[in-house]
Fold:
Amino acid sequence: MENILTTVFTSSLVAGSICTILSHYFTLKVVNINYKNEYYKILIRKRIEAYEYIETQTAIFRIVVFDDIDRRFYHLMFSKGEESFIEFQKNLVFANKCNLWLDDNIYKTLDEINNLFYNIVTKLHNKSEEESINIGKEYYQQISDFRIKLENDLRKALRDLYKIKPFFKEKGKKEKRIIRIE
Structure:
């Protein structure tokens, strides 16, 4: 009888210990998963915030003016000269500031737009409104093409936003940034 009680007691103690250890293990696993999920939510929020700047910039690129005289288009940001152009460019600056959170394709496109805008600003310097508008007409198609490319890149990035692991892949060495002055 004593052996049976000892066996039952030992079995209960072992089973209880195993259940406690397994319960603790799975609780730690669940807490770790929840921690990672909360962390991923923060990362996704930061990325969405960066993409909102880009969305605002593409909306600005959509605002165009049609000149009845020569029947050509230009973007509204050229209508008031250099200062107006720079004012419209602020979201691009904010988006570039958040480049850590951006998809590689978007970053490359923004860099190309930034190079283009640098050259445009040098051409706009000390120009009249009419001259600024003519510069805008000259660059209308190029800016429109960049807008479409940026919107497409943004759609692709948003489609895969939930995939966090590829976002963490190590990026190769960045090339030196070269701005070509026309």
